[in-house]
Amino acid sequence: MIYNLSEQHSLVSNWVSELRDVDVQHDRMRFRRNLERIGEAIAYEISKILPFEEREITTPLGTAVSKVLKEQPVLATILRAGIPLHQGLLNFFDRADNAFISAYRKHNKDGSFEINLEYISCPDLENRILIISDPMLATGSSLVKTIHHLREEGPPKEIHVVAAIACTVGIEYVKREQPTVKIWCGDIDDELTAKGYIVPGLGDAGDLAFGVKTQN
Ligand code: URA
Fold first, then answer.
1. What is the count of structural domains for the chain?
2. What crossing angle do the helices spanning 141-151 and 168-177 adopt, rounded to 10°?
3. 14: Cβ contacts below 8 Å, ≥ 6 apart
4. Per the domain annotation, does 58 fall within a domain?
5. Per-residue burial over 22-32, b = 16 or more CB atoms within 10 Å of its CB, e = otherwise
6. 10 alpha carbon to ligand 1 midpoint, in Å?
7. Whether pLDDT at 103 is above 90
8. Is 170 a member of any domain?
9. What is the atom index within ligand 1 of the atom nearest the CA of 207?
10. Residue whose CA is closest, atom 4 of ligand 1?
């Protein structure tokens, strides 16, 4: 299931356009904050399909029956580019447990690359709702590898993937390898370069948020 937030008018599209814009995206604080805002908006959208329960709340004047989230999700992200989007989700799911994964592309001489996972810090995921954020869903290979590893810590009962921009190639790959996963994104692009960058995309999300790294 794909939820593409650009199909309806919302501020998410404004924030995605600022992420993409070469005249705006160099403002690192705004870049990170826009990713965070997208995380917040998508957290709100996801909350609409999560289980709720009624709870009696004592107010100073009486008792109110409120519908509240039945259980907290686990929020997972892929370092380092995922941090601002993750923070946005955490701002709204403010009692969530958290998982962190470090994944990087190890490039070969022929231009191809493999995904190496190095560090996983994760709670027990058995029967939990898992929300994984990755700002750029490009080839989908790091995401699929991450999901594969995280399933071993559980298995979770449902998995949501959150991206600012997703590429159709990556979406198809995730759908093929992990058909039950729900994908939420701010926009969808159709092209991918040989190096796995989304076109038109926005460039390198990690570098734009945190500065250019020396490793490739
Ligand atoms: N990661 C990025 O930061 N940008 C892309 O276009 C693809 C992956």
1. 1
2. 30
3. none
4. no
5. eeebeeeeebb
6. 23
7. no
8. yes
9. 3
10. 204
In this structure, the residues whose C-beta lies within 6 A of any atom of ligand 1 are 81, 136, 138, 196-198, 201, 204-206
Q: Is residue 62 in a domain? A: no
**pLDDT value at residue 206:** 97
Residue nearest atom 5 of ligand 1, based on CA coordinates = 197
CB atoms within 10 A of CB 80: 16
- Model pTM above 0.85: yes
φ/ψ of residue 184, rounded to 5: -115, 130
Evaluate whether residue 33 is within a structural domain. Answer: yes
CATH of the domain at 193: 3.40.50.2020
* CA 203 / ligand 1 centre spacing (Å): 6
Per the structure, the complete domain to which residue 156 belongs is given by 2-49+69-200
Encoding tokens for residue 6? 């650009």
Distance 44 CA to ligand 1 centre (A): 25
Ligand 1 atom closest to the CA of 204, numbered from 1 = 3
pLDDT at 128 over 70: yes
Nearest residue to 38 via CA among 9, 7, 74, 14: 14
> Which two structure tokens, joined as six digits, stand for 21?
């814009």
Which residue has a Cα nearest atom 2 of ligand 1?
A: 204
Question: Ligand 1 mean position to 81 CA, how many Å?
Answer: 9
Distance (angstroms) between ligand 1 centre and the Cα of 146 equals 16
37 Cβ neighbours under 8 A, 6+ residues apart: 11, 12, 15, 88
